[in-house]
Amino acid sequence: MTQNRVRAAVFSAGSWGTAVGKIMADAGTSVVMHARRSEIADAITTTRRNPGYFPDIELPHNLTATTDPAAALDGADFLVLSIPAQSLRASLAAWAPHIGTDTVIVSLMKGIEVGSGLRASQVITEVTGIGAERVAVLSGPNLAREIMNGQPAAATIACPDQDATHRVQQACHTSYFRPYTSTDVTGCELGGAVKNVIALAVGIASGMGMGHNAQAMLITRGLAETTRLAVAMGAHPATLAGLAGLGDLVATCSSPLSRNRTFGTHLGQGLSIEQATTATKQTTEGVKSAEAILALAHAHRVEMPITEVISDLLHEKVTLDQAAAALMQRPPKPER
Ligand SMILES: NC(=O)C1=CN([C@@H]2O[C@H](COP(=O)(O)OP(=O)(O)OC[C@H]3O[C@@H](n4cnc5c(N)ncnc54)[C@H](O)[C@@H]3O)[C@@H](O)[C@H]2O)C=CC1
Ligand SMILES: O=C(CO)COP(=O)(O)O
């Protein structure tokens, strides 16, 4: 690894933030993580481990951590944001005064803001006043634990400004992480957010004892409704067939490492939403985003039957059996 003099501030030191911090540091970028808890920040800097998330993985020497947002952002070329989507607005408002005039913001978040229906990149431009050309999104089949274990993965980095995209790509390209570029921010963000809702559905089906045919049906029809919404909102259909669409959908819906799939499995096995929340612990974006995505579907007059049923289940309007029946008993129609 050669140092490239580029600096990144990663907010925060959760599961995916830590993994992307490691990727960037392995790519030669100097990384300062921002953690809310001083014991996490101190442990990362002094022991080179994040005891809250990956106590078994040693972090690179060019990665440190602080609880001070100003110190983390001082001289940063990139601000990488990885916190729950619903807390982005309030947290970013506090950090915004410390963001440099040339800093490029990279969103890792896969959620839609409840109430506004905004994607994370839109919340970022609204809160900071920074133009869309300085806001990139990174999305793909990226289960953090696999990447921390050094297993190969790829992702899509999207931004309207190709120079910014290439700089982010260089700053996170390693022997085990292969980033591709795109200009389709809308497609990448919607692919990432909607797949969480579909993963909830697949988890529920699995928890209810349904087999791989049912799970494949949900994945395939889930991709169809994701693509319908994304295209109606201006995305390119090819993005949804790529890493940030199909790729992420397959990884998340197939892996027991996925928090969304696991949350769904708990529900399918009969746990209440409260019990599933306690059991899952980490951020499960699909649970909150389902209703925001459904509101977007209504606004764009797009049919999203799986999202609708999952939103109804999460609001306890239907039972598991009623949800399954609602999907299977829809009127027959052509596949497209
Ligand atoms: N874990 C994964 O494998 C992947 C996660 N993502 C996305 O990354 C985003 C973050 O997820 P994870 O890191 O997995 O979640 P996590 O639950 O592991 O970590 C969340 C981080 O945000 C911080 N945080 C929580 N509430 C906050 C608040 N109100 N204000 C500021 N910081 C707060 C926590 O202290 C923690 O550092 C989500 O949008 C998720 O969909 C994307 C790809 C992979
Ligand atoms: O986005 C992810 C993999 O790409 C992680 O999915 P979960 O949030 O369901 O764990």
Describe this structure in words.
With 336 residues, the protein is an alpha/beta fold. The protein has two domains: 7-183, 3-Layer(aba) Sandwich (Rossmann fold); 190-328, N-(1-d-carboxylethyl)-l-norvaline Dehydrogenase, domain 2, CATH 1.10.1040. Helices cover 51% and strands 12% of the residues. It has 16 helices and eight strands. The protein has helices spanning 15-26, 38-47, 69-73, 88-95, 120-128, 144-148, 162-171, 185-207, 212-232, 237-240, 243-254, 259-268, 273-280, 285-299, 305-314, 320-328, and strands at 7-11, 30-34, 63-66, 78-81, 104-107, 135-139, 153-158, 177-182. An eight-stranded mixed sheet has the order 3-2-1-4-5-6-7-8, sandwiched between helices. Helix 7 (162-171) links the parallel strand 7 (153-158) and strand 8 (177-182). Helix 4 (88-95) packs parallel to helix 5 (120-128), helix 9 (212-232) runs antiparallel to helix 11 (243-254) and helix 12 packs antiparallel against helix 13. The radius of gyration is 19 Å and the shape is globular. The termini are far apart. 1,3-dihydroxyacetonephosphate (13P) is lined by residues 110, 141-143, 196, 199, 248, 251-252, 258-260.
